[in-house]
Amino acid sequence: MFAGRKVRLFHFLFEMLEDPNMAHCVSWVPTDAGVFRFSSTNKDQVAALWGQRKGNKRPMTYQKMSRALRNYSRSGEIFKVKKKLTYQFSRDTLMSLRKCHRGSL
DNA sequence: TAAGTTGGGAGAACCC
DNA sequence: GGGGTTCTCCCAACTT
């Protein structure tokens, strides 16, 4: 899935969310559609994986990854939820991600 | 107080 | 090479 070169951060995050093996790092919030939350202890693992995916020289951290996440708030793709380590995909972003995800299966 | 989390600005990398 | 977009990095403030 998303096996291209120009993988964007929210593509990668969606992959993590759809992977049951990554549920201990990041998972959907069952009570809110499109809302997901990072594990307080494993959030850096997700970031490290993202850094590897991009082939970064320096190790990625949650701090830096959340900075990129904040950029999505400006473009309206992902919004920050007023809870710790919690973000929300916009309806539109979620729809295109799901379409892309199903199409790549 | 310390640790963890969030936010801003500037610069680098990539694509047209 | 220029312009626009996305991502990375460092620093400071806020919350628990």
From TrEMBL:
Q: Which UniProt keywords apply?
A: DNA-binding, Nucleus, Transcription, Transcription regulation
Domain of life where this protein originates: Eukaryota
Chief place of localization? nucleus
Q: List the GO molecular function terms.
A: DNA-binding transcription factor activity, RNA polymerase II-specific; sequence-specific DNA binding
The record ties this protein, via Gene3D superfamilies, to: Winged helix-like DNA-binding domain superfamily/Winged helix DNA-binding domain
Entry annotated with the keyword Transferase: no
Annotated PROSITE patterns = ETS_DOMAIN_2, ETS_DOMAIN_3
Q: Where is the ETS domain?
A: 7-90
Subcellular localization, per the record? Nucleus
Q: Which GO terms describe its biological process?
A: cell differentiation
Under SUPFAM superfamilies, the record lists:
Winged helix' DNA-binding domain
One Pfam match = Ets
Which Gene Ontology cellular component terms are annotated? nucleus
Q: Which family does it belong to?
A: Belongs to the ETS family.
On subunit structure and binding partners, the annotation says:
Binds DNA as a monomer.
The protein's role, per its UniProt record: Controls the development of red pulp macrophages required for red blood cells recycling and iron homeostasis. Transcription factor that binds to the PU-box, a purine-rich DNA sequence (5'-GAGGA[AT]-3') that can act as a lymphoid-specific enhancer. Regulates VCAM1 gene expression.
This protein's name = Transcription factor Spi-C
Taxonomy, top ranks, is: Eukaryota, Metazoa, Chordata, Craniata, Vertebrata
